[in-house]
Design brief:
By secondary structure, the protein is mostly helical. The chain contains 29 helices and three strands. Helix 1 crosses helix 3 and helix 9 runs antiparallel to helix 10.
């Protein structure tokens, strides 16, 4: 069942992304990156695939890979780390070091997938454009980069092609070159082509900002007056909707500049002036926060960070040590100790033995673990929507979606036969029932423990910090910790969150890989530390969360960090003076939280902060 899930996802994308038109063939999906036979082997789960290639395939059919978990080889991870180092040098403007790393990477991957060579050429072009080298040379490099995977796109209609956001970005970069060369008509043609592609293809909303934000920014530089203003605002709203800050500051700057020019020549309405002041305040808050944590966001670009990925070798080693088994005991009945030793050190990637080894660890026997198992992709998307509704405190909507999903899963007998599906149902129902007042915090905790025991039957009798946790397991532990906070047992809540944090930090790839829900857990952990009375430590964690959000380019939980800092300072003042007094520092942090909540339209936070502000307004200065 598990091994068929990735084929289900790709087949769904081949149909879904066409907006009702004919299905993309497998030849079109894999074109320029491999053979159809290789794609079939990936879909059947017979071979470990490089995440770089899987992500590109999914992006081509309009799907985001972030909600999937994947087992990686050591070689894949090492290459990924080198790409991240190159990006870091690019962001830090260390171009000499970046050039050396690109040369090394090009030599190492010369016989590998063309995606590696495409990456080298694109990064080289970006570096050359930043140092203002010859634009004709940059055009040649970008054209060559695109031709690795896409040919004859200029003579094709956008709706006839199947491109990933990475390939669309190259077309936009070419448009920038032509604008720099004052070939405005050609630049405009390229940008409109990309815009037309985005209109004729469905894409998950997480993908659109990665290339469309830059497209809108460039269109605002080529067009004039109200058209330019429209494109700049479209880019800003796109980024606000996805809580993303890649290209946001340049778009805000462009919008404010255009507004000023129009006002100088034609005049503005009161609403337009008000919108301009609001947007300027939003930009200034982001820049102020970035300055406080020493992160540069003025030229922030999307970095293709791996999400929810784990080393095969490390997963096996950690689980074996967690269970206290020798290598010989662990691999008995699967392979020899000599063969297993090579797998655990990462020198060999398991193929025929992989399913049995994963079963021994208690994980799905697949290289790619999807959000749900045995169902079409639209139900996997529904799970994502349920989680999003829970984060936004929309419990009625979450319950409605959950009832639909549970009915389908039970009808297909995919609850009793799939522990991870059953686990999700138990977890979600426990959260909803507690939120609507049907059960107590203790009853919720017991249901969550039962959910966790579907895949970790030994909990709570063993310390899970030594074990690798899948993101659904980590989210259950996050909610278990929250039940302890409800009972004001901050020590126990902190113990659970520390266990989850330590599980992530024990990994060799911690700091390079991002995990779904980790920002939420960090926000909850900081809040718990503050509630226990450790205000300075909580404030420190909140600043760490701000820094992480801005570095990663996602600001969904930025408001919570700002409010946490303000709240901690309020408690310190109460402790010192035995009453709350107004102070500029925490009032400013509260203002920042309000601006961000309104910017991202976080309804629950807006109402909560409004009530908090009302309470402060009643305090005498």
């Amino acid at each position: 069942m598990y091994r068929k899930d990735i084929k289900t996802v790709i087949d769904y994308g081949r149909t879904w992304s066409r907006k009702g038109k004919k299905v993309y063939s497998n030849e079109v999906v894999i074109q320029g990156m491999g053979t159809v036979k290789e794609l079939y082997r990936m879909e059947s789960g017979d071979m470990a695939m490089e995440k770089l290639l899987l992500d590109r395939i999914l992006h081509r059919v309009g799907l985001d890979s972030d909600m999937m978990e994947m087992m990686l080889s050591n070689e894949d991870v090492e290459r990924y780390k080198k790409r991240i180092q190159i990006f870091q040098c690019y962001e830090a403007k260390e171009y000499e070091k970046m050039g050396q790393l690109l040369l090394e990477y090009q030599e190492e991957t010369n016989q590998c997938s063309v995606l590696h060579q495409q990456f080298v050429q694109v990064m080289k072009a970006k570096w050359m454009s930043k140092t203002k080298q010859n634009w004709n040379d940059i055009v040649k490099i970008l054209t060559q980069a695109l031709q690795y995977t896409v040919r004859d796109w200029e003579t094709s209609a956008p709706e006839s092609l199947c491109l990933a956001w990475e390939e669309l970005e190259i077309i936009v970069l070419l448009a920038i070159c032509y604008r720099k060369k004052r070939m405005y008509r050609k630049a405009l043609h390229y940008l409109q082509w990309v815009l037309q592609y985005s209109k004729t293809h469905k894409m998950e909303k997480e993908l659109r900002p990665k290339f469309l934000a830059l497209t809108y920014l460039e269109l605002s530089k080529i067009t004039h007056d109200w058209d330019a203003l429209y494109y700049a605002k479209s880019g800003i709203l796109l980024l606000y909707e996805s809580a993303c800050i890649n290209y946001l500051i340049p778009l805000q700057n462009r919008y404010l500049y255009l507004l000023g020019e129009i006002e100088r020549r034609k005049g503005l309405t009161k609403k337009q002036r008000r919108d301009g002041r609001r947007l300027q305040e939003e930009r200034d808050v982001l820049l102020q926060l970035a300055k406080e944590v020493n992160v540069r966001i003025e030229e922030k670009e999307p970095i293709p960070i791996y999400k929810n990925a784990y080393l095969i070798s490390e997963t096996l080693r950690r689980y074996r040590n967690y269970m206290g088994l020798s290598q010989e005991e662990f691999c008995e009945g699967v392979c020899s100790q000599v063969a297993y030793s090579k797998i655990e050190t990462g020198t060999v990637v398991p193929k025929r033995t992989f399913p049995k080894l994963m079963e021994r660890v208690g994980l799905p026997s697949a290289y790619v673990i999807t959000a749900l198992h045995g169902v079409p992709k639209n139900y996997m998307d529904q799970k994502v929507e349920i989680n999003r509704s829970l984060r936004q405190y929309q419990y009625k909507e979450a319950k409605r979606l959950m009832q639909q999903m549970e009915e389908v899963l039970r009808r297909k007998r995919l609850v009793e036969n799939c522990p991870r599906n059953h686990q999700f149902i138990l977890m979600t129902n426990a959260i909803i029932e507690k939120a609507v007042g049907k059960i107590s915090s203790e009853e919720k905790r017991n249901q969550l423990i039962l959910a966790l025991q579907q895949t970790i039957p030994e909990y709570p009798n063993k310390d899970l910090s030594k074990r690798m946790l899948l993101w659904q397991e980590a989210m259950i532990l996050n909610n278990i910790a929250a039940t302890y906070i409800d009972c004001q047992n901050y020590e126990k809540a902190t113990e659970v969150w520390k266990m989850v944090r330590n599980s992530y930090k024990c990994s060799k790839i911690y700091g390079f890989i991002d995990y779904e829900g980790y920002d939420l857990m960090q926000a909850n952990y900081a809040s718990c530390i503050g509630s226990s009375g450790s205000y300075s430590q909580s404030t420190k964690l909140c600043y760490e969360n701000i820094r992480h959000c801005l570095k990663e380019g996602n600001i969904e939980f930025l408001e919570r960090a700002c409010y946490g800092i303000a709240w901690n300072r309020e408690q310190e003042i109460k402790q010192k003076y035995r009453e709350l007094k107004k102070e500029t520092a925490y009032l400013e942090k509260l203002r920042q939280a309000e601006v961000i909540a309104n910017m991202l339209k976080q309804k629950f936070s807006i109402e909560f902060l409004k009530r908090h502000r009302g309470m402060l307004d009643r305090i005498n200065d």
